[in-house]
Amino acid sequence: MSKSLREDISLNVEGMGQPNFNMPEAKIGLAKLVLFFLFVLVAIAISTIYIPDEMLSDRDIKLIDNVYQSIVPIASMVIGYYFAKD
């Protein structure tokens, strides 16, 4: 019984080929995605300028200020990590 079980589980990997994965291209794609979402976050934060002050609470204003302060460090981290020489 154990012999037939091994035959059932055996996997034929001949002819499957090599995996096709381009790491630099994947890093650039991920960096583009992160920078795109950072841009969307900045666009939303900038759009709050047009909201009247009466509609924003102090907590909202602090959140917007934190987003503005975090733009440069996040962008520089993404650019430095993903576009640096390997």
Q: What does this protein structure show overall?
A:
It is a single chain. This protein has helices spanning 2-9, 23-47, 58-82. The mean pLDDT is 76. It is elongated. It has 3 helices and no strands. With 86 residues, the chain is mainly α.
Topology:
Blueprint: H1 2-9, H2 23-47, H3 58-82
Unreliable stretches covering 5 or more consecutive residues? none
The ordered H/E elements are: HHH
Average of pLDDT: 76
Our count of helices gives 3
Give helix % range: 55-70%
Oligomeric organization of the protein chains: single chain
Radius of gyration: 25 Å
| First-residue to last-residue Cα separation | 52 Å
Largest sheet: none
Strand tally, please?
Answer: 0
Describe the structure in brief.
This protein starts with a helix and ends with a helix. It has three helices and no strands.
Task: Please describe the structure with a list of short key phrases separated by commas or semicolons.
mainly alpha; 67% helix; 3 helices; 86 residues
